[in-house]
Amino acid sequence: MSLYDLIWGGVGLLLTVMVLSYLIGDNLLFRLAAYLFVGVTAGFLSVLIINQILWPFLLQPLINGLWIEKIWVLIPLTLAVLLVISQFQRFKGLGRVPLAFLAGLTAAVTVGGAVFGTLIPQLRAVVNAFDPLDWYQSPGMPWLRITEAVVMLVGVLGTLSYFHFGRRRRDQNDPSEVRPGFFEGLAKVGGVFLGMALGTVFAGIFSTALVAMIDRLLVISEFVMRLMGGS
Amino acid sequence: MKKILPIIIACATGLTILAGYFFQDRLAPILGLLINWGIVLVGLAGLIGIAYLVRMHIFRIAHRQKGGFYSVIVLLAFLFTLIAGLILTPQNAFYRDWVLNIQTPVEASLLAVLSVTLLYASLYLVRTRGWTPMSVGFLVGALVSLILNLAVFQFQPGSRGEVWALVLRRLPLAGLRGILIGMALGGLIVGLRVLLAVDRPYEGE
Amino acid sequence: MPVLICPECGAENLPDAETCVVCQNSLLGVEPADLEQHQPDAQFEHVPVDQPEDDLSDLLSSLKQDDALDDFSEEEEGHRSTLSVGEVEQQQDSLEEPEVPEWLHRIRQRAQAEPDSVGDITQRIKAAQESLDEQKKEAQEQRLESVIKKIHGEDDEQPPAEIAGDEEQPVEDDEDVTDDVDWLTRIRKKHRPELAEEVQESLSEREGDSLLQWLVALEEGSSELDGAEDERLHMSELTEDTQEVEISPLPGDSTQEIDIREASSKKRIETEIRVTREEQTRADQLAAIIIDEKTPRPLREPRNGISPSGIRRVLGLMLVILLSFMLFFQSSGSVTSGLQEPQGVAVHAWAEGLPAQAHLLFVLDYQAGYAPEIALVAQPLLELIDGESRVISILSSSPSGSLLFSKLLDQTLEVGLLEVHDLGYYPVEAFGAYGLANQVRSKWQITSQPEFMKRLPSGPFDGILILADDYDGASAWIEQLTSLALETPIYLLVTAQAAPLLMPYWESGQVKGILGGMTDAINTDGETAALASRWRAYQAGVLMVIVLLLVGLLFPVQQLQDGEGGGR
């Protein structure tokens, strides 16, 4: 084990212990580790943005590029300058243009992704489950596939009903809100499906956290073993 | 004009990007250009955000506010990482070790702390939530998933047991798909409101 | 001029008076005082509203001084009584201005006392200001009305004047006022003769009167607050959507504030108010909230003597001990796999069947904390992919993605044969994916565009592998890549926490395979002795949470207080 590895191993061990000390309660060691992490992450992100975004996309063509390349860079450069100077109170209004550009871009990508990437394929999958050809693809269990398709349809509709946004009031004077009768029934079924989905997500999150805990324990033990001259 | 120009820019950009989903072959280079500009702006916005963070910590130190010591830690770590990164570049082995040997233990240990919190939550799940359809579903979903994760049961490929295990595994899929569709609907509505200038986040509304 | 100042009420009397003109108190033995010597600025001393509140005795004395107040015209007094709080404060500020020259002071006094003494232009300006103030006040009232109407959801069919007339018809019963002290009654008669005569008075006038009563109540020790129980909000002329309500003092209301209306001692106020059902509902809710807020609650007793943080510590300690035992004291043996799921099998099948000169794109969207789990999933696959003439491009949408992947490659492949191209960092997943998909399908290029603008590869790829730690990042890539009809197969190597929410994408055929977390890695990869201790520790941890979930069922259900525990 080289000194270099020993130092980094020690740093890792120390930081692990400092953060795990949070299990006892909030303390100085935990905060130290957290603030160190914030500083390093902010610094690294700055380097990454400068090195991989601003330098190749803006600065390099301005310094080394041909005149035609400089023209192409003018628009993002203008937007960038507007964004920077809008941070000063006096020029606050100028930030609207680059922010509007970003908002339009993000909104369009979100809409396109949601419609073409999730809504249509997922709804199609729900409907396709009722394809008789598909039922008989796996021999011996067509009834299971039919059941699955029905459960899937009921589950999806129920879950969506659970989040039904168009609630109306039972009475003008009654502040409690209630879904229309049909949706109310579906929502109750949807609650069960939603609970199952969340339970599965819970199990997944716990598994991930558990793997992290095991990894930390292994790191500590490996470092101690190496320090003691073990394998 | 001050108000109309940003609206025009947002709508024009958005519609061009949306058109890309239909006329991809013809618009691809222009769309790539717009995306590149967007990436530049997002990067710059990130840098501005970091500048505000640094300014806040400098302020805390200058005014000797509570937690000033932690701000010194943040600033030292930030400056070292920034300068080293600019000099050595992120591909450098030492720089990689510096960043990863701080980030990995801290983040992984935070996750480890989360595992204990989840253990505690699992103990009091039904006690605090009561017996509702959702809590029953939650319990069943979590138990089935965890038991299958244990991999204590051995299944012969194609056996009836495997089929039933797979059905159990797929049971939460309906709820998961419902969540996915619900989120997509939410995203669609928010995006459309921005594109139709009903919501104008760029105006600070 | 020497005057006699009444020791009882402070009023000024003529030097030869035997009894006070205000309170009829005997003035025998009272020494005459020179008013001009002692009160050089008498007019200002008589303005009650201008006094600071901490000098109430003097203020009340000055209130009782009839003669001096005669200097002010009735018109001026009437105006003063209807001053709003803001105006009073303004006037107070103006009067408290320090270092006003005496000559200016006198001019101001003169101008107040004799309107004719000021010039024509000044009078016009003053008139214009008053008119403007009136307009502002009207506009404010109209705005307030419209806001109230909006809140009530009423339509605008009813003219504002009518509404105001209907809603505010205060009737003041002066029968019980006789119990007030005599001098106060006389002050009222002197300053507000209309109070004694008129049955109805405007709201603003009542406020002014109430202020006076409040001051008196304070002066008298606030002992007469027992009239509050008789206070009723009486309703008449009920229409369809109105009804009679009775608001009684709230139980447990122990406020120390002195209510202006209560301070009017035995004066009984009957007010007619129209309340809609909605208003009543809201008022009831408000009253319920107030009562609930003031209800004393017993402190929650600690459960079983152990605090939640204590239980958490115990559980944490138990978990650490259990995992350590499984990691270090269990004999390592081979690992048997459990349920082989088709989405995991598909990934391995694809990797094994890759062509010799495959070109793959790795999308990295995971943070450093998840690196150990991602490594467990990705390492077996990387070993399968590693080949002499194979090329992989990496594109990162998390800051440390490329660093983590290079470390992963170093750990996995001691002598890597792969050719690796780093395409850089894309801060927004959706932008990167959209740009990538467009680049792949583009049939023409902008020739004069800078070379670096074309950083995204145009493919074609034999497969895209997304390494993600959460649902958000991975789904953004999947959405964009599949919505732009990219035919390249997509595979996911994700953490256990991201896998469930990404399953529908596999089910719908948008992704061709998923490996999620340690279980999938073990199940798909089969028996691996290298991971034995880790796997056993994992099983022990999972078993512990199952046991805790079941033990939790034994606890009785605890009813949550409102707002406790989050959104149910």
**Major sheet size, sense and barrel closure of chain C:** 6 strands, parallel
Domain tally of chain C = 3
Total count of helical runs of at least 4 residues of chain B:
8
- Residue-averaged pLDDT of chain C: 68
Count the DSSP helices of chain C: 22
Structural class of chain C: alpha/beta
Give the distance, in angstroms, between the N- and C-terminal Cα atoms of chain C.
Answer: 80 Å
Low-confidence stretches of chain B: none
Q: What fraction strand of chain C?
A: 5-15%
If you average the pLDDT of chain B, what whole number results? 89
Helix content of chain B: over 70%
Question: What does this entry look like structurally?
Answer:
The complex is a heterotrimer of chains A (231), B (205) and C (568). Chain A has helices at 3-20, 28-64, 67-85, 96-128, 132-135, 142-162, 181-227; strands spanning 168-171, 174-178. With 231 residues, chain A is mainly alpha-helical. In chain A, helix 1 packs across helix 7 and helix 6 crosses helix 7. Chain B is mainly α. Chain C is α/β, with parallel strands linked by helices and 568 residues long. Chain C has 3 domains: 2-151, no CATH class; 168-294, no CATH class; 342-443 and 452-526, 3-Layer(aba) Sandwich (Rossmann fold). Chain C has helices at 35-38, 42-45, 56-64, 66-69, 74-81, 85-95, 102-113, 120-152, 160-167, 182-191, 193-197, 203-219, 277-294, 308-328, 342-352, 371-385, 401-412, 429-441, 471-483, 499-507, 517-525, 532-552, and strands spanning 2-5, 12-13, 33-34, 171-172, 232-234, 269-272, 359-365, 391-396, 419-425, 463-468, 490-494, 513-516. In chain C, the strands form 3 sheets. In chain C, strands 9-8-7-10-11-12 form a 6-stranded parallel beta sheet. Chain C is elongated, with a radius of gyration of 43 Å. Classes of the chains: A mainly alpha (231), B mainly alpha (205), C alpha/beta (568). Chains B and C meet through helix 2, helix 4, helix 5, helix 6 and helix 7 of B and helix 14, helix 17, helix 18, helix 20 and helix 21 of C.
